[in-house]
Amino acid sequence: MPPSPSQNKSGKLSVVGIGPGGMAQMTGRAVEAIKEAEYVVGNAFYLDQIAPLLPGKEVVRSSMGREVDRAKACIDLARDHRVVMVSGGDPGIYGMASIVLEVLDRAGETVDWEVVPGVTASCAGASLLGSPLSGDHVTLSLSDLLTPWEEIEHRLDLAFQMGVPIVLYNPKSHGRPENLGRALAIAARHLPPETPVGLVRNAYRDGQETATTTLGALAEDDAAVDMRTAVFIGGKETFAMKDGGMLTPRGYGRKYVY
Q1: Residue 10 burial (C-beta neighbours within 10 Å; 0-12, 13-18, 19+)
Q2: Strands 229-233 and 166-169, how do they pair?
Q3: Residue 144 falls inside a structural domain
Q4: 6: pLDDT strictly greater than 80
Q5: Would you give the DSSP letter of residue 237?
Q6: Are 36 and 114 in contact (CB under 8 A)?
Q7: Are residues 87 and 175 in the same domain?
């Protein structure tokens, strides 16, 4: 839980998820927190997506890979100012909330804070495909910058054994082009090649693209996937809809006649 207000009543740190990036997909509280802020700190890519909300703010831009510096900067500012740390998607799901709160906790700082949730890539992408994540599902990142690849492989193997839909974040980059192929090979141990797969690139952003394919076809050719693509691998019950969407039934068909 956030700490009780300190003697300084004016300072506050809000870690704000802006969702996919489009203004229409931001929560009301996210917009409100940014409007209330004196300082807005974030990666330049995400700040550009909320440009209409930034006039009159002190904007502190940062590049990828400077997350710790960004966290320290916003904590320093929040002692005396209302500060927003911008995070893409949801700040608590592969976002900035973890590092900000970890730095804050280790420093023993007393700063009023809040985490404002946002629409994460799995939710945004799923909405464009239909309803592939209707019940239990797993999200896994294939980025091994912070997690050893051996651990990622172990998690993938356990997840695919469950037979539930799996969303892969950060599936492939120029520096790690082979990670998606490795993940698909693990999936093939437990799922048939005709398993439906959805690809969503730049959900609710400029350049949005969606496609459906199969596990076998994607394993043969994954050229359409990059770091801005979320890969939705269906579970044992997921099927391709007649209109091209993806659907994972929740089980109503076993209980009701319709």
Answers
A1: exposed
A2: antiparallel
A3: yes
A4: no
A5: T
A6: no
A7: no
In the predicted structure, residue 77 carries a pLDDT above the cut 80 = yes
- What does the pLDDT look like over 84-116, one tens digit per residue? 999 999 999 999 999 999 999 998 888 999 999
Cβ contacts of 95 within 8 Å, gap of 6 or more: 15, 17, 87, 88, 89, 118
Model confidence over 213-233: pLDDT tens digits? 999 999 999 999 999 999 999
What DSSP letter does each residue of 8-46 carry, written as one string?
Answer: -SS-EEEEEE-BTS-GGGS-HHHHHHHHH-SEEEEEHHH
- pLDDT surpasses 90 at 203: yes
Count of Cβ atoms closer than 10 Å to residue 99 Cβ? 18
Continuous H helices in the chain: 28-36, 44-49, 67-78, 97-107, 121-129, 149-162, 179-190, 215-220
Query: Domain for residue 6, yes or no?
Result: no
Domain of residue 175, residue span: 122-247
Query: What angle separates helix 67-78 from helix 97-107, to the nearest 10 degrees?
Result: 60
Q: For residues 36 and 58, what is the distance between their CA atoms, to the nearest angstrom? A: 12
Closest CA to 204 of 95, 125, 140: 125
Distance, CA of 30 to CA of 246 (rounded, Å): 30
What is the C-alpha separation between 231 and 25, in angstroms, rounded?
Answer: 20
> Where is the domain boundary, 119, 138, 155?
119
Residue 199 CB partners (closer than 8 Å, separation 6+): 209, 210, 211, 212, 213, 218, 224, 225, 229, 230, 231, 232
Q: Are the C-beta atoms of 144 and 180 separated by less than 8 Å?
A: no
